[in-house]
UniProtKB/TrEMBL annotation:
It comes from Podospora comata. Residues 190-233 are annotated as: Disordered. It comes from the Eukaryota. The chain crosses the membrane at residues 12-30. Keywords: Membrane, Transmembrane, Transmembrane helix. Residues 190-202 have a biased composition (Basic and acidic residues). InterPro entries: Sec66. This is Translocation protein sec66.
Amino acid sequence: MFDINWRGLLLPLAYLAVLAGTFVTFSTVYRRRKALQSANLAPWFGPHLQRNIYLSLLHMEPEEGTEKAPKIPDSVIRAALLRRAVEDINRIIQIRTAKAACSSLLQRGSVGDDLWQRFQRAEKEMEDELRDVVMEANALVPGWGQIIFQSANEIAANKVLRDRLDEIEAQADKEKEWWEKRRATIQIEFMKELDTESEKSNTRPSTSSADEPVLVDGPSTPQGGPRKRKGKK
């Protein structure tokens, strides 16, 4: 049997214990600091107004002097949840559009880790939001959670189309107004040119007497007929 010199191993073991304690402490402090920084980061999206409206309708509190809260029709609650799903569709489109750009900028070093952390947190929040909407839809109408986002996608697409048509109509009105002004300007310039040409023609000297041909009378013939030629004798 080998005798172990515990006194000789005491110093290395103490060193390892201190090193392990330092590493654990540093890791804990670092994780807490990163979590605090992540919590203090500005959110990727603004307040979710449609979700707040839906929750306010769902948990309507009784008015002062009454014991029961007012009854909200189910159709109003379903409409509020559908509007919430439409807003979620718009945010999902923004996240999918920005993900490739943020990833590319992060790889190039053009943006910091804070922006990527904000994006990841927004992506996680949207996953929880979609799951919550599906659960709420199934609670209101069984099986509605499977098709609510399909309906919301159609509503969002129709809204984009209407906004585009309104933009085209507004642009058409501006172009029509511009063309009316341009046509009036062209007409005024054309009338000015006509007036200028008319003034030039009136002030130009007359050259009709010099340009008229002059008739030269030939040798006159006696009356009574043409002159007879004398024959040679």
